[in-house]
Specification:
alpha/beta; Rossmann fold; KR_dom; 266 residues
Length: 266
């Protein structure tokens, strides 16, 4: 997909990867970019920074009626949605002991929000015979987010759902991409490090933390090539192959890293 003259919607658009995508889409010549976020004030700030091409909306992605209303309003305002970026996500830093409320929130934001977006945008896209869905799934959806069981489980589900969408709708003209970055310098990573979350420390130890703008660059390239997997960290492809070929060895390597990081904290 070439972003010139396209209409794009970005959830979780008020910061991190989302706001970087919004700025880059406008720079690429998008006709309109809708910045949607639970933090409506932050979304409006991003839209104001970008300029008249951007439009801000407050949105709870776990509320299907709100998602449907966003899509309907965008289609009324601009005539169509060419690209829907289901980008909102949450981490927990918890394991099996994480309360049910954390598991439920991760499921609703990291998985059901993608479902709600697809339900809302697919009818018009299918009628038109074109459209692109971009789901931010994380490298955790291909590998493991050490120290965060809800994030790992739900991101794997998100990749699985994106794969199903791609297989089901590609021949109808719909393109689907799963954006799977590893470490990105976002508030999510900063909060994890501040709280001592093991997964955030593993990412920091890897030394491969990208800026949101670098992720946006990789996303633009992936959309242009209509790739299913967009991997801002190319090494993730090698990790995924290693994990598939030798899961026991892959897990042993992760356990070794975890032991080292835990020893450093003692």
């Amino acid at each position: 997909m070439n972003l010139t003259d396209r209409v794009a919607v970005i959830t979780g658009g008020a910061g991190g990867i989302g706001s970087a995508l919004a700025r880059r889409f406008v720079a690429e010549g998008a006709a309109a970019v809708v910045v949607a976020d639970l933090d409506a004030a932050a979304a409006h700030a991003v839209a104001a920074e970008i300029g008249p091409t951007a439009h801000a909306v407050g949105l709870d992605v776990t509320d299907e009626e709100q998602v449907r209303a966003l899509v309907e309003e965008t289609e009324r305002r601009y005539g169509r949605i060419d690209l829907f970026c289901a980008n909102a996500g949450v981490a927990t830093g918890g394991g099996v002991e994480a309360p049910d409320a954390d598991w439920d929130r991760a499921w609703r934001v990291n998985v059901l929000a993608h479902l709600y977006a697809a339900r809302a945008v697919l009818p018009a896209m299918l009628k038109r015979g074109s459209g692109h869905l971009l789901l931010t799934c994380s490298a955790a959806g291909l590998l493991t987010a050490v120290g965060d069981a809800p994030y790992t489980a739900t991101k794997h589900a998100a990749v699985g759902f994106a794969d199903w969408l791609a297989v089901t709708y590609r021949d109808a003209g719909i393109r689907v991409s799963a954006l799977c970055p590893q470490g990105v310098d976002t508030p999510m990573l900063a909060d994890g490090l501040a709280n001592g979350h093991l997964g955030a420390r593993v990412i920091a130890a890897s030394g491969a933390v990208l800026t949101p703008d670098q992720v946006a660059d990789a996303t633009i390239a992936g959309l242009a090539e209509e790739r299913f997997l967009i991997l801002p960290h190319p090494e993730v492809a090698a990790y995924a192959r290693r994990r598939a070929e030798d899961p026991d060895g892959w897990q042993a390597g992760l356990r070794k890293l975890v032991r080292r990081l835990r020893a450093e904290r003692q």
